[in-house]
Amino acid sequence: MLSLPAGVRLFLATEPTDLRRGYDGLSALVEGQFGMSAMSGDLFVFLNRRRTQVRILYGQRDGYCLVMKRLEAGTFRRVRTAESGAHVEISSADLAMLLEGIDGANIRLRKRYRKPDEEIQHPLDGTSARVE
User: Fold this and answer.
1) Which is deepest, 23, 73, 76, 113, by most CB within 10 Å?
2) What are the two backbone dihedrals, phi and then psi, of residue 98, each rounded to the nearest 5 degrees?
């Protein structure tokens, strides 16, 4: 179980990533394709083509940290979005479901308060709604 600090943002790559890359390769991918700073304190999640491995990269003041998980059986769920972006922002609950093998497309989210004028898109099932 990962314990994430409040306010941390999580970004999931929508395309498969060559996970032979290490710290420098993944941080170059974040900065080049995502247009973001890998040292921002945000978490960046990558899946391989076969969806059997996941790597999470985040930068701290003094360096990078890389968390890896490899499945012995089964696959992680691929996230598909309507937009053709290189990444999508997800919540910590979405990350936990992804790592535990829960299919978000079959889960119905209960109504919760959201700030007005905020567009909500659930990255695991692709639905979106505008809250007013």
Assistant:
1) 76
2) -60, -45
CA atoms of 41 and 85, how far apart (whole Å): 21
Query: What residue type is 77 in one-letter code?
Result: R
Q: Would you say residue 76 has pLDDT above 90?
A: no
State how far the Cα of 47 lies from the Cα of 3, in Å rounded to an integer: 20
Domains of the chain by residue range: 10-105
Residues 130 and 125: their CA atoms lie apart, in Å, by 16
Specify the DSSP class assigned to residue 78: P
> Taking Cα atoms as reference points, which of 87, 47, 44 lies closest to residue 66?
44
Block residue for tokens 């941080």: 27
DSSP 50: T
First vs last C-alpha separation in the chain: 34
Amino acid letter at 57? L
Model's pTM, two decimal places? Answer: 0.75
If you search the block for the tokens 């306010």, which residue do you land on? Answer: 7
Beta bridge partner(s), residue 57: 44, 66
As a residue count, the chain comes to 132
